[in-house]
Amino acid sequence: MAKFIYSMQNVLNIKERLETQAKTEYAEMNNRLSIEEDTMRRLVGRLNSYEMQAKKATTDKLDIAEMIRCNNAIKLLKDQMTQQAVRIRIAEKNVDAAMQKLTEAVQDRKIHEKLKEKAFEQFKSELNAQEMKEIDETVSFNYNNRDD
Q: Dihedral of the CA atoms 125, 126, 127, 132 (nearest 10)?
């Protein structure tokens, strides 16, 4: 029996590897975004802590040095949060780009899998036609060579 060999199997294999790479890149970008968001949450927590310390320094006993220290820390944290927000936006754009790349890789792989399926169907129909031809030839030979 004939064996099906897909002529573009190497291209399909490459598309599958590209899809795997795109999945890995997407996971890395998603992980990076998660790390950046966690960093922002920690900064917000520290900011809240310093704001509470500053408020406490004004309510109990007026501690000017503590208020100045807290206010300076708050300014520094707000600057860090602004920078972190930029990092988050960049990470989000990277995730979107990786997702787009992954989507394209999946589409390419699916296209080549469909082409392989169509080639296999074509192969099966050609094989079936060849078998029918052989059956017809056998029947014709038997009919022509029968003893009357």
A: 90
In angstroms, what CA-CA distances link 56 with 19, 46, 49, 69? 55, 15, 10, 13
> In which residue ranges of the chain is pLDDT below 70?
1, 147-148
Give the C-alpha separation, 19 to 26, whole Å: 10
Q: Which residues contact 87 (CB under 8 A, 6 or more apart)?
A: 36, 39
48-69 confidence digits (pLDDT tens)? 998 888 888 777 777 788 888 8
Residues 6+ apart with CB under 8 A from 85: 40
Q: In sequence order, what E strands does the chain have?
A: none
- Annotation: CATH topology of 9-142: Helix Hairpins (1.10.287)
Query: 35, 132 in Cβ contact below 8 A?
Result: no
Q: What are the residue ranges spanned by the domains of the chain? A: 9-142
Q: Are 84 and 36 in contact (CB under 8 A)?
A: yes
Gap between the Cα atoms of 41 and 114, Å rounded? 46
